[in-house]
Write a structure and sequence with these properties.
Blueprint (H helix, E strand, L loop, with lengths): L18 H36 L19 H12 L6 H6 L12 H18 L21 E4 L2 E4 L2 E7 L9 H14 L6 E7 L3 E3 L7 E2 L2 H12 L10 H8 L7 E6 L5 H11 L6 E6 L5 H11 L3 E4 L5
Parallel strand pairs: 3-4, 3-7, 7-8, 8-9
Antiparallel strand pairs: 1-2, 4-5, 4-6
């Protein structure tokens, strides 16, 4: 006797999928689709980059223009050297027979000579300590500087830079005063050693540097020749107002080691106060000279006394 096995009919309904099964199937499909999209995007980016890099040159690097070098043959070099050697050299005997007079040579003018003498002046200042050489306390008549010297109307001063403040007012046109002053100023500059410097200011109603030169002039041969010509052209005119000239001298750099101050007239006591006050900023001896007239003697003595300078009166030409 056989046992009957239950038989499932063909029209029996399938078991429905659960929610978990449906989610897993959807997630798998979405992941595959995402990978395909990402792969496609990367391929496109790589293709675009390749086109940009190799599109213009077909993938070959660009080469700049070739650099050409000029090559000179040995024969060309020999010819060039021969041409250089053909420059005519002066005959030494001709140079000895035809010496150049520096005082008449137009090439050796004052400006060129000043440039030539610059190095010698710098060397002299370096040997003497350079810079501002006046003394710290301003006392004494030597300015505490160097080994140079100057003399004006009998007053001796020591230093390396000398400023002259000279009266050229209208009264200097009387009694031969202007001529006597010119002779003494010329003598003073001409007797300086060549390693010192000078600066001359002429004053009347206003201040005017000698020859229009607003800087130190080296007392070399060229500097002295220039000064003699400029001094010969001085003419008197105007009143006696020395303060603008002092302002010009006090503003000089480097500063003077000594100042000569000459007048044949008189001026207000207040001007002396201004001069003394300005000089205290950097004390410098001021050597004062009254010329032909003693009207300014009291204030000139005071200026000399309070700046460490000296005072003298001259009736005519200096010694």
């Amino acid at each position: 006797m056989t046992q009957d096995v239950p038989h499932q009919s063909d029209d029996q309904a399938p078991v429905p999928e659960s929610f978990g099964q449906k989610f897993r199937r959807w997630f798998l499909r979405a992941s595959i689709a995402g990978l395909l999209i990402s792969f496609t995007i990367h391929i496109v980016i790589l293709l675009v980059a390749a086109l940009i890099q190799f599109g213009s040159g077909g993938g070959s690097p660009q080469v700049g223009p070739a650099i050409e070098f000029a090559v000179m043959s040995q024969s060309d070099l020999d010819e060039m050297q021969a041409e250089e050697l053909e420059v005519e050299e002066p005959n030494s005997q001709e140079l000895l027979e035809d010496p150049v007079d520096p005082s008449t040579d137009p090439l050796l003018d004052d400006s060129l000579a000043e440039l030539v003498d610059t190095q010698a002046t710098l060397d002299a200042e370096l040997n003497l300590g350079g810079g501002d050489l006046s003394s710290a306390d301003g006392g004494g008549t030597d300015g505490g500087a160097g080994t140079g010297s100057a003399s004006f109307f009998g007053i001796e001063a020591r230093g390396n830079r000398f400023a002259y403040i000279v009266d050229v007012s209208g009264s200097m046109g009387r009694d031969g005063r202007i001529k006597a002053m010119q002779e003494e100023l010329t003598r003073s500059v001409s007797s300086m050693p060549d390693y010192v410097s000078f600066f001359i200011v002429l004053y009347s109603d206003d201040a005017h540097p000698l020859g229009g030169k607003r800087r130190w002039t080296d007392a070399t041969g060229a500097g002295k020749r220039w000064a003699r010509k400029a001094i010969a052209n001085i003419s008197p005119l105007g009143a006696t107002k020395p303060m603008p000239a002092f302002e010009m001298v006090f503003d000089m750099r480097p500063r003077p080691d000594a100042i000569y101050f000459m007048t044949d007239g008189e001026f207000a006591e207040g001007i002396a106060d201004q001069i003394i006050m300005r000089n205290r900023e950097h004390p410098t001896p001021i050597h004062c000279i009254t010329f032909m007239s003693r009207s300014a003697e009291p204030v000139m003595k005071r200026i000399a006394s309070e700046t460490g300078g000296t005072y003298t009166h001259q009736e005519g030409r200096g010694p």
